Amino acid sequence: xxxxxxxxxxxxxxxxxxxxxxxxxxxLFGLVFARIGFLEKGIIDKAQSGGLLxxxxxxxxxxxxxxxxxxxxxxxxPPTFGLLALASVSIALVCxxxxxxxxxxxxMSTAIGVTCMLAYPATQIISNExxxxxxxxxxxKARASRFVLPKMIVGGFVTVTIFxxxxxxxxxxxxxxx
Length: 178
Description:
This protein is an all-alpha fold. It is built from eight helices and no strands. Helix 6 crosses helix 8 (138-177) and helix 7 runs antiparallel to helix 8 (138-177). The longest helix is centred in the C-terminal third of the chain and has 40 residues, at 138-177.
């Protein structure tokens, strides 16, 4: 999968640019090989290493905050909370309308839409916590997880991976022009 992604490297100077990013290639190969039975499904659960994997994924997050000064952090708070509030209301309205067209409830549509602000590890953690909290029996938890988790994971990949790249390709030229 990695070699397939690396084979799509576009020539040129600057940072590497791919037709098919190697990380996305690994994800696609994993999905296909699991579907055809070449890879065993649920191997992380069988190895009971989900907690360790989530811990490793969460270690990536605080690294970018190491260079921020306390005054810089305080300056960022008002615009950050303002944008989060505006984005949350906008996502709830737009996703409720689109969800109604697709046959989902406003709550489920909004939850899927909010994945654009969370990204991968958080979508799985929140989905697991919600299903564990709301369901009473193990069977109910499993059924709720099978219903919610795939929608949240796919929603996160689509919004964060695909839509953000499209949006950046549209907005980037405007920002760089000024």
